[in-house]
Model the fold of this input.
Amino acid sequence: MTTHLHTRGGDIDEMSPLRPGHGPRAVRPEPPQWRQRLSRADHRYSPYLYVAPFFVLFLVIGMFPLGYTAWVSVHDWSLLGGKGDFVGLENYREVLDSPYFTKQLVNTISIFLISSVPQILIALVLAGLLDNQLRGRTLWRMSILLPFVVSPVAVAIIFGSLFGDRYGLVNQALNVVGIDNIAWHTNRLASHVAIASMVNWRWTGYNALIFLAAMQAVPRELYESAAIDGAGRLRQFVSITVPMIRPTMIFVIITSTIGGLQIFAEPRLFDDTTARNGGSDRQFGTITMLVYDFGWQLRDLGRASATAWLLFLVICVFAVVNLVLVRRIGSLGGER
Amino acid sequence: MSRRPGFLVYGLLAAFVLGSAAPLYWSFLLGSQTKEVAAQGVPPLLPGGHFMANAQRAMDSIPFWKALGNSLLVSTVTACSVVFFCTLAGYAFAKLRFRGRGPLLVFVVATMAVPTQLGVVPLFILMAELGWAGTTFSVMLPWLVTAFGVFFMRQYLVDAVPDELIEAARMDGCSQIRVFLTVAVPAARPAAAILWLFTFMQVWTDFFWPLIALPPDNPTIQVALNQLQSGYFKDFSLVLAGTTLATIPLLILFVLAGRQLVSGIMQGAVKG
Done:
């Protein structure tokens, strides 16, 4: 995000949009025309009126709930009975002690890694392919975006059938090449691969288009001079394209981290047991599923809130780690 | 890289597109078989002719039309609300000078990264307190504005509206709101259309919050699909016919506006 932001100090007097015409400047020995004054107030204060609805609504529906989650998390709070006693960090302790938290955290991270790493690599290659003088450019670009319009719920149902343990298409295809059936729903790692493939299917084309846009902004002279120096296409891609689109890669990685760690619909709909907590042994249950389980199945909003806050912390840690990692990898590429 | 691509490039792309379309075809294929054939694994590669019957069974098993109506309503209202409020705020950030603009914009950018989905517990409590629990309005509320929308419109309007034009309009004595309506709104239209589309899709495909907020008899289409899958997961022909059916509205949107979606994603990338 390379926006240049003009940082100016906020002045409390200037912040109030509610009293046009009654500000300190309104009192003058010889006031200008009524119209002029109104017009000046209009120019000065209406920007605040324009941004106010966004900020007011966003504070109520975006920021307040996050803060209030922390408040709920330090109380006994039942779904039906409402607020109970203040319990300090008791909910956090219970969540951390529960046998499921660590397991589902590991599942979440595992699914996230299996989905995001191949996804970014394939999207890079795909964008490299699209960054050619193709015939029917728009049609190609549209076609790879097709999975994006299928909802995660629908994707999960379809892939749940493709990855059926006994008669699924994937297992039948594996049988053809001589591999035995894989227990996609019960084997822990296999279920993670199946769920990651849903995420990859839906998002790879989308990310490829973002990378493509960044690639098209790379100056063509760089490629020409590299070609003169004898660099092949692969070498050009690795040494010029990838370092040049680093800011975009950071953007994609951060956003897919935030989204990926909250995964819910895919594992929930992939589950064909009646409890629907992520498999009979929660082998593919995720943290957001645990929030749902605590809050709306066990009806304990206190523990649900504690879990949500723990997930929030995990997301922050991952975002920072990613940022550092990508910076380092990117700068290594740029020094060549 | 500006060279004429060869067979390999087209071959790889075609393989990728095939992979993108295959799961959807599979869904339709199984959805068109009888229950017995669908349970037997890989069916014949041509549709079986039972799609309408299966789709009818699916519609009888869940409140399909109600869910479709709810999804349409929720997505349309929120998309319009996001476009309206975010264009207004985006314009102010892009073109108007006011104290605190910089810090406020930094705040908007920073909150784009905040996972607001994690605030479901208080939202749920809030809806119950206000007596909106279970209504479609409670599903709309968290989506009425987005930080992304403000940032997106701001980035677009910075370049799309020349400062001179605004100055000229002011010289002529236009009020701020008239400048906004006559200069900014027409210029913002392409970006507003893209923002509308993306918000619509995002809300249409959202699952977590509507699952919590809505009772089983008043679902959105995603929540209804969830009911269908949990009730009939042994019957793939039924479930996949329903899934295919529920995907059709967005497929229509894709055919009509796929071009805009592509350019929206690519614009967002360069400017973001």
